[in-house]
Design brief:
With 490 residues, this protein is of the alpha/beta class.
């Protein structure tokens, strides 16, 4: 319906043939339309096509409230925010209503009085779908007044009402979500008595404010998110509320490296050229190595798996690695930004801050674990890209260092300068070429591939790396990799 022809009064709305429907019916109808057209219902959500999204669609088709249950960084909040796209573009309400009164079926005293006084001349307002989505982060200090409402003494005094009058109520978030979606993040953090208020209004539709019963048959879709760890760490969902939630949909981390890479590349900020920077070219083997860091962390016994390893970890690592490469490109006047494995060590702070460690991990330290994860990820990526096919070249590289060869490459050296250094190691550039990782028109890309080979040899303990940046034949005490000026040695 065009804005110029929208009804402006209750009478005009009736004449237009408008029919009221519940928000769950509205979402169901729009969802069916999207399914019939094979539209992407949740664009940008990767890896859930055969798991989470079908369960979510089933709950919506059944007109059920639901909870998304999963560990941190599994797109729960993003999914519930996208539900607003299933609402109609706009709906009519009685003008001035705080709880989006349906003009044909008002539930507030304000709405009923407005129609009693003005009849078909009662003014109509139209609200967009975004205004019908209300989201709240549950915290222990949330009160029943925040969610349901409270008596407003000032309003009572100004209007000359007794406190028991419904017109004195200052409505909370849930009534203000009437005819829309009310989303509550981290449900277990909500105090039990507040959860009681939720399930009462979900089932019976009546509430009490300051001891006065107020009948509010709200029309709302309730969606929640929760972390399984929260059930024992900070709180729980009370049983009567759980019983009234129609569906419990479990989310999960990417099931494969390819899925994870797609998510990370989609979410990471890489378009630096539009902000005064230079074009960014991230080698595929670098993004894969970064993704493998998260996968390895999710399997590491030193990392608390109950808390999970968020998908934000590889996203942050990729952004910081690109930033380190960008700083190098600007300093050396390079035309494009190409991150290398050494830049992953510069992004260690993006890893350590996102790992919850077990007791054993605390003894080792987050920094050392992060460096070990980077090296191990490089080794796995190297193997996945055909490292076994260059055995002779690898033997030649190792032999070079065993015979006293030295190599030092700083993370501030340009791609061309680094590549010249790598050419001094017999078999190194040849191994990269044999694996199809070299790029003739990009020294930085080829240098990154050379570093990957050396990192893989370090992960396999065929080479070692020192913090000082130099290597020799004399064995040194093992130490964590350094983000600055990595060198490689036997």
């Amino acid at each position: 319906m065009m804005a110029a022809t929208r009804p402006g009064t209750l009478g005009e709305l009736k004449e237009s043939g408008y029919r009221s429907r519940s928000v769950k019916d509205e979402i169901r109808t729009n969802l069916i339309c999207g399914l019939q057209k094979n539209e992407a219902l949740f664009p940008g959500i990767i890896g859930y096509d055969d798991s989470v999204i079908p369960q979510l669609v089933n709950a919506l088709l059944a007109r059920q409230n639901f909870v998304l249950l999963g560990l941190r960084g599994q797109a729960k909040s993003r999914i519930i925010r996208m539900l607003a796209g299933l609402l109609d573009p706009e709906v009519p309400i009685l003008a001035g209503s705080e709880i989006n009164d349906d003009p044909l079926r008002p539930i507030s005293k304000y709405g009923r009085l407005l129609i009693d006084e003005q009849g078909d001349d009662a003014p109509i307002a139209w609200i967009p779908r975004d205004a019908r989505f209300v989201e709240k982060l549950a915290t222990p200090d949330v009160t029943i007044a925040d969610i349901i409402g409270d008596v407003d003494p000032i309003r009572a005094a100004r209007g000359g009402h007794v406190l028991a009058d419904e017109l004195t109520i200052h409505y909370g978030l849930l009534p203000r979500a009437n005819r829309g979606i009310f989303a509550l993040n981290e449900l277990p953090d909500l105090a039990g008595k507040i959860q009681v208020g939720l399930f009462n209004i979900m089932q019976e539709g009546d509430i009490q404010i300051k001891g006065y019963p107020v009948r509010l048959p709200l029309d709302v879709l309730l969606v929640f998110t929760a972390n399984p760890e929260d059930y024992t760490a900070r709180g729980k969902i009370i049983t009567p509320l759980k019983d009234r939630i129609g569906a419990e949909v479990m989310t999960h981390y990417p099931e494969g490296i390819e899925q994870g890479v797609r998510i990370t590349v989609q979410e990471a900020w890489l378009d630096r050229a539009d902000n005064g920077g230079r074009p960014v070219a991230v080698p595929d083997f670098i993004t894969e190595t970064i993704e493998r860091i998260a996968f390895l962390a999710r399997a590491d016994k030193r990392v608390d798996q109950r808390s999970g390893v968020s998908q934000r970890l590889p996203i942050s690592v990729l952004e910081n690695a690109v930033s380190n490469a960008e700083r190098r490109a600007l300093a050396n006047g390079e035309p494009e930004v190409v991150p290398r494995p050494t830049d992953l060590y510069a992004a260690i702070p993006s890893i350590t801050g996102k790992l919850e460690l077990e007791y054993e991990g605390e003894l080792v330290g987050a920094d050392r674990i992060a460096r070990e994860l980077v090296a191990a990820a490089a080794g796995e990526t190297f193997a996945a890209w055909g490292g076994e096919a260059v055995t002779s070249e690898l033997d030649e590289i190792v032999d070079y260092f065993e015979r006293g060869g030295l190599l030092q490459v700083g993370d501030t050296a340009s791609g061309a300068a680094s590549l010249e250094g790598f050419r001094t190691v017999p078999g190194l550039v040849e191994a990269v070429a044999a694996m199809g990782l070299a790029k003739d028109d990009s020294p930085g890309w080829t240098a990154a591939a050379c570093e990957l080979v050396l990192e893989a040899l370090v992960a396999a303990r065929r080479l070692s790396r020192s913090d000082a940046g130099s290597y020799g034949r004399t064995p040194r005490r093992p130490s964590p990799p350094s983000p600055g000026k990595p060198t490689f040695d036997v």
